[in-house]
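Quick one, T. Sequence first:
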Amino acid sequence: MSEQIFKPNSSGVNRRDFLKTSSIVTGGALVSALSIERSAYGAGTDEPIGKKEIKIALVGCGGRGSGAASQALETYNQGPIKLVAMADAFKDRLESSLENLKKQAPDRVDVPVERRFVGFEGYKNAIALADVVILATPPGFRSYQFEEAVKQGKHVFMEKPVATDAPGVRRVLAAAQIAKQKNLKVGVGLQRHHHAGYIETLKRLHDGEIGDIVAMQCYWNDGGVWVKPRQPGQTEMEYQMRNWYYFNWLCGDHINEQHIHNLDVINWVKNGYPVRAHGMGGRQVRTAIEYGEIYDHHAVVYEYADKSQCASQCRHIRGAWSSVSEHVVGTKGRADVSRNEIKGASTWRFKGEIKDAYQQEHDDLFNAIRNNLPYNEAENGAKSTLTAIMGRMATYSGQVIEWDQALNSKIDIMPENFNWDSKPKSLPDANGAYKIAVPGTTIAV
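Structure tokens:
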């Protein structure tokens, strides 16, 4: 995945019939022919899994997925754990990930060729073999895969964001409720919720240390990410999936893929979600064909129920001011949340021990699984995702977007089916350029 390594003090820094098509199962049979081992901690039971071995499956074998699998395997001090299945659309990514994971934890990785699933349907097979599933494909696939994992009764860790359009958000919200009914534990990769400094800072803010919070700012301004040149013979589907960051059905624009972290923190500060948003954005610097259809900057004002506002920015322009941070102003002071610092009647800054938040979120999830503790981050993950999508709707359309309007939008940006010859809804013109949203003209909700 594309996300930078989390530095809390940094100032610079699928379709309805998804997968009825094009499954290539490397060296194995379809799930109906598999000998499926039932979950060691079944849905709806009250018996903790305790020290039994937990089997995990990795779906999506890019950098963030591989990192998440590595962190899950590092919870071995809680009890035995093993990676037993992997799935990815691309064989090269799966094999590279597997090789690296074997080097890191050879005694905790057992994924023979018959449990490596390549293609669009492989995720179902991998899910069937595990107790816990890590979902780390590009975000557009997330809601379908989460829905399937819940259907199969599996605990889940899924990366953020959890969708790229409103129908996907609604799918996650529905599956989240079923997960609760089945007593399934769900973690979402918004790791600041597991960062000791953030936790203590938010507690102090909620306890009124700076009074009533009246204004907020948050930023994910940096230089942007990779581009993978189009290769001879590539279908449009493969090209877009290799460059998933630049296509909304896969990524949701960088306001969704990265800035969600900062927006989620502001929602946490407010103990709620924005009621409306307006903003502006566009493509000023990263305008070449290889940047697909996304903007290179967004500036959105979010309004909350108490009329307080958050001014948010995200930008992918190199050589400009960079910041990945969150700030709040109260009636009695202010806080740099990202630095875990408060300036009110006195100055406070968190000085306790901070464990890597990426690791901590897995420690917390697996502790909840082993000890049958309440744990479901899916609803917040879906609503923070919708916060980001609502911002994109506002910048693309140039209109004020209401929360309920965003949530109930019928605009579905996902392809109608999935195989390597399928056509995404966004296609290049005769010159190879993709249609770019135009505020005042584009209908985004």
